[in-house]
Amino acid sequence: MSDAPRRRFPIGLTVASGVSLVILLGLGTWQMQRLAWKQDLIARLETLKTAQPKPIDEVLARAKRGETVDWVRVAAVCEQPIPARPDHVRNAVREGQIVWRVTSLCPLPAASPYREILVDRGLVANASGKVETPTVALAPVGAVVGVLAPAATLSKDAAALLPDGAPSLILMAERETPQPVEVVAAPLPPNLTNRHLEYALTWYGLAGALVAVYAALVRRRMKA
């Protein structure tokens, strides 16, 4: 009577399970990193509610030195552009609805570390939910108070509007003097949610389930 054939270790299953495990753990870790980023952002936005504006030249000088100046409230007085430059209207999504945002260039005084900065002046009034691009013609930006936001985190379209030599920041206007009636200021993200811990636990839970299923399959195969 011959011995029963020895079961081979499931190399293919092991490799596939290992790759899947690495991916699931990586996604969980990425969500934990996003959790830390979102917590920091929420804390900064909470601080902004009572922060007084700082002179933009002072803040941009810090940016020029490589310091992070995201989500800082600033005040600026724009020089009048010669010739006047057209505004740019781009679509975005706010609270699940299509909106149209207006951006204009703000030429800065000669003493400023940068020549100009891009200003998001807010949402086109009465255009939310509309598919067609609205037509607006605003006066150049005068005095403006707003929040500096990193251009890359807003949208690729917004970042593409940055002029050469300008900081990678967009001044999200909270109020202007004079205030254009054609737009409604909308500087900060509304109702930020933070579900990254929930997402991370989901990915880690799937990783744990994968390990349990893999172990059960290998045990059954080796005993068969």
Give structural notes.
It is a single chain. The chain has two domains: 11-40 and 194-223; 54-184, no CATH class. Strands 1, 2, 3, 4, 5, 6, 7 and 8 form an eight-stranded mixed β-sheet that branches. The protein is built from five helices and eight strands. It is an alpha+beta fold and 224 residues long. 21% of the residues are buried. The mean pLDDT is 86. It comes from Caulobacter mirabilis. It is found in: Cell membrane; Membrane. InterPro entries: Surf1/Shy1, Surf1/Surf4.
Summary tags:
5 helices; cell membrane; alpha+beta; 224 residues; transmembrane; 2 domains; membrane
In short:
One of its GO terms (cellular component) is plasma membrane. Keywords: Cell membrane, Membrane, Transmembrane, Transmembrane helix. With 224 residues, the chain is α+β, with helices and mostly antiparallel strands.
Strand-helix topology:
Blueprint: H1 11-48, E1 54-55, H2 56-64, E2 72-77, E3 88-94, E4 97-107, E5 116-124, E6 143-150, H3 151-154, H4 156-160, E7 169-177, E8 183-184, H5 196-223
Parallel strand pairs: 1-2, 5-7
Antiparallel strand pairs: 2-6, 3-4, 4-5, 5-8, 6-7
Helix pairs in contact: 1-5
